[in-house]
Amino acid sequence: MTAAQDGPAFDRRMLEALVCPRTHQRLEYDAAAQELVSPTANLAFPIRAGIPILLLSEGRPLE
Predict the structure, then answer these.
(1) What is the CA radius of gyration of the chain?
(2) If exposure means fewest CB atoms within 10 Å of the residue's CB, which of 22, 42, 45, 57 is most exposed?
(3) What's the whole-model pTM score?
């Protein structure tokens, strides 16, 4: 699904204010997967319609 199909694009400036809900560390933006990645927690959080979903229950374990 592309950003056009999924809604507005994620605003990278939000990265300055967002932190991992588990570790409270900064997140990395993966534009190709439309996810915010927490390397410390080993989790990736989805971005849907330009909105990051930072719920631990939505976090995908990194392989």
Answers:
(1) 11
(2) 57
(3) 0.83
**Torsions phi, psi for 14 (to 5 deg):** -65, -25
Residue that the structure tokens 């990736």 belong to: 44
| Maximum alpha-carbon separation in the chain | 32
Tokens encoding 26: 């900064």
Q: Dig out the tokens for 59 from the structure.
A: 């976090």
One-letter identity of residue 46 = P
Q: What residue type is assigned to position 13 of the chain?
A: R
**29-63: pLDDT as tens digits:** 999 999 999 999 999 999 999 899 999 999 999 98
Amino acid identity for residue 23 in this structure:
T
Name the residue with tokens 């927490």.
38
